[in-house]
């Protein structure tokens, strides 16, 4: 008897209405359309519920008492249905695919017909605050929860890095009601990094070890990020911004400024993801094609980007490699560069450069700087800096003349940080020699090589002066 509606079948089968319509279209559920409404054969629904073909997992999993049923959403698009056991942190039955093309790249099979529960769990683990983040253990104890994987459920998995969220099954909540791109979010009036964790806040899904916090200023979403022992990382972000502004176009990088937060210097940058976009780390881009034997990681990544229709990827990677080389950036790992995807048009572009704080020998103790080589182990393609530089092909954008005075500007700016005492002369020399080396390599091709080292003119240290968090600073004068 054709009497069961899509909504009723959805409830009986424990899947979304979109999944029911997909089962109708595939012929798994017998149905007919009456006055524009699908009516499904009741026996067909019962047979599907009883046998549940294709799942390949014990039916006992479906009745686990602590498992909750959710939909993974991408804006208003239903992506897949899954169950999550809060008592164990385990994802269950993550194979009800609804919209494979809008799913996270890493969790789908190559043909887009299945979702990996293990891959979904791994993707989720990087959607939470890492356990290495300072202060997280105390915050978890305060909230009375066992692990960081529970935190995103406090705010439906919402983020400012993408458009994914988790919707309780049967809920009528809409994207426009809850997303952080359009709606203001809770912001505790205290200058503590963990203050908003556990509330209605994007801080629940912020990845990375350094202290971070999202704030909203005059309608603009900005990410604040702290430093480590010497507080050098926030200064490095501003120095990288100055470097990028001299060599690259505005669309190539994320601009950082320096502010004071809780009595310490922090970097601030605007959100580089638009209201219909998501950032996809290179780690996941790498997984869309199988890795061929004897193909290096650079070539594999380029081929994966080409398969997604990304234009100008090798020029973009060349800019990243050269600028990281100048900054002695040792932390360009596979999660802090990648692509931007518009989740409505499904078009891709290269993500702008960001996260250059772990550079300029910031992790080398001051007493060891004098014995530290200027050449460092690089990432992500080769540790050997020269070998990685040889990957750079197109240098039509490169004008090394624009870096005249940059080492002095950077070291003078670092002098504003009292913790930099005894370090800035070394950093000046390191920057100058790295630029000279690039002029030797690339200037000869352009016929402008003028390799030379100019000792730094010493200046008296300046007193640090920063504005309050509400007033974002501009770059220091050149």
Structure description:
With 478 residues, this protein is of the alpha+beta class. It is 28% helix and 17% strand. The chain has helices spanning 6-13, 17-26, 42-51, 117-125, 136-143, 175-178, 232-247, 282-285, 297-307, 313-327, 366-369, 385-389, 406-414, 424-446, and strands spanning 2-5, 31-34, 37-41, 67-74, 77-85, 90-97, 164-168, 212-217, 220-225, 257-261, 264-270, 277-281, 338-342, 348-350. The strands form four sheets. A four-stranded antiparallel β-sheet has the order 6-5-4-7, with helices on one face. A hairpin with a 5-residue loop joins β13 and β14. The radius of gyration is 26 Å and the shape is globular. The termini are far apart. The relative contact order is 0.08. Mean pLDDT is 85; it is low at 53-63 and 460-478.
